[in-house]
């Protein structure tokens, strides 16, 4: 394969991985940046979505099984988000260390339960017919699923951005952080808003796990890998922002994919070297927002 084609293919793969990483990190950014809760169980939600994709669809997805899996991950993600909201509510005004310890414990328990249910082997799943081949564009071939993932993840990213940044619902999220008493005074229960943010963030994480299953494959340890990448994206992008994690995720998707294609032995160093370089210039991240959405 010509070097140019390798580079272009790696860039397309990086776009798919970056958008998928944004879907995961967006929920973490909302929960941490707006609700001020450090949720280290986020990677376990991603892994749960990946295991559900395999459990419902098997090694080869079909369109009906994919539809059932989407419904399952949305329902389970919403339930998990509601439960996490209830469990972390007593710690909402306490230190991040206590929140981290609680959610880390939840993540470890979830990982053990998933290992007990599905074993320690890699559970690989392939996309349904029509997305399991390649598409030829301008004489170059690309995996169909990765191109479809770019489109699906881009739509999800646009929906999340518009919801948080351009709608009254997003304004309500920010208002709840800046002045809970005022939100309560206008007749809105802040606890419901907080729960809604947790539900949205958790659904995004489990849905990202479903979409990423054909790429990463469900396996023990994947939750930690995804959590670290999501935290990197959130820190570089900026807390409480949506634009920041989007730009950071696209950047790290390209660094990881192109790096593995061109310099496979240095891919990890390139990723965290980019993290260090960005934080030297912007220690608080690219688009950090103060509580309530103020810059």
Give keywords.
globular, disordered C terminus, 295 residues, 11 helices, 2 strands
Structural class, judged by helices and strands?
Answer: mainly alpha
Task: Give, in order, the helices and strands.
Answer: HHHHEEHHHHHHH
Strand order in the largest sheet: 1-2
Question: How many H/I helical runs?
Answer: 11
Tertiary shape: globular
Cα gyration radius (Å): 19 Å
| Arithmetic mean pLDDT | 86
| CA distance, first residue to last residue | 47 Å
Helix content estimate: over 70%
The total of beta strands comes to: 2
| Biggest sheet features | 2 strands, antiparallel
Spans where pLDDT lies below 50 across 5 or more residues: 290-295
Describe the structure in your own words:
The protein is mainly α. The chain is built from eleven helices and two strands. The protein has helices at residues 3-34, 42-57, 63-88, 96-118, 144-166, 168-178, 180-185, 190-216, 222-237, 243-262, 267-281, and strands at 134-137, 140-143. The chain has a two-stranded antiparallel sheet. A hairpin with a 2-residue loop joins strand 1 and strand 2 (140-143). The chain starts with a helix and ends in a 14-residue tail after the last helix. Mean pLDDT is 86; it is low at 290-295.
